[in-house]
Known about the structure:
This is enoyl-[acyl-carrier-protein] reductase. By secondary structure, the chain is α/β, with parallel strands linked by helices. The protein has helices at about 55-60, 85-95, 140-145, 150-160, 175-190, 205-215, 250-255, 280-285, 295-300, 305-320, 335-340; strands at about 5, 25, 40, 45-50, 60-65, 70, 75-85, 105, 110-115, 125, 130-135, 170, 190-195, 215-220, 240-245, 265, 290, 325-330, 350-355. The chain is about 25% helix and about 25% strand. Strands 1, 7, 9, 10, 11, 18 and 19 form a seven-stranded mixed β-sheet that branches. A six-stranded parallel β-sheet has the order 14-13-12-15-16-17, with helices on both faces. Helix 4 crosses helix 5 (about 175-190). The relative contact order is 0.16.
Amino acid sequence: MTALMKSVGVQALKLLSSAVNFRMNQCGETPIGCLRSFSTVMSPPSKAIVYEQHGSPDSVTRLVNLPPVEVRDNDVCVKMIAAPINPSDINRIEGVYPVRPPVPAIGGYEGVGEVYAVGSKSFVVKEESVWHKIDKSCPMEYAATITVNPLTALRMLEDFVSLASGDSLVQNGATSIVGQCVIQLARLRGISTINIIRDRAGSDEARENLKALGADQVFSESQLNVKNVKSLLGELPEPALGFNCVGGNAASLVLKFLREGGTMVTYGGMSKKPITVSTTSFIFKDLELRGFWLQNWLSLGKVKECREMIDYLLGLARDGKLKYETELVPFDEFPVALDKALGKVGRQPKQVITF
């Protein structure tokens, strides 16, 4: 069978396949191992987690049966194998993002699947240009999760400030998948990382886990309630680049670490609090504030470059040089996985739905 992952660099052409994760079909025919051309053929019916209005995912999502979809000549009928629940998926459902798919919509944005014939299990119908063939030796959980968080980490490292071996960067949200990937990708380049985590139960364990990944310094927000945070750097150079995915006070802490002329890149706002910047940060430190949204970058015709980076990241994962914790959850336990992804039961690994 041909292993495929959904390429997020191509816009969807059908509503039912614009965000195609969390879907399962109950048919069971024999799979084939190659792409086929179909003509006036319908896919089997499927099941999907959909939302018809924006709001809290645990109240607006529901399981529905989807009718067959026409498989056109250049379409591929794919059995989904696994798909994660990302914070960005939750934000889309909640309506936080100003750009979001029209409702009704299917939750999710990335995943991995196999090419199947008409009549087999868990189908997604999509034009073949949307899919990216991958090496089947790559672990399923990485193939399903590589195109959003790790790709975000890689692009932010390469797109804003030219860092060399011996330089440093600072980030909040360091325990996130993006944060963990930043630590490991930076380490491969000889770049030191200063990492900020929230004060909560398990912070000591989180600190040790980040150190094991290669973090140079890890501070809780309360540890940074000092007059001069740079005094905590020791022999590390002042960072020229900072990443913010939290907002509020955590963003201010990133700014305090930056050297004169430094840049802070915001790619999320988990606290839902605004970023407050002092006048002196602009006048006397000449700091630059930038933003990054992966979907916007991918819309710039970056399909070929995106696929090359995906292969690079999957190679690192396969070699054990890029890793993060995931939890595989069967599709019929989706409500449990959603509660964990929403943080209802404390910090949990990345939830990956299997079909």
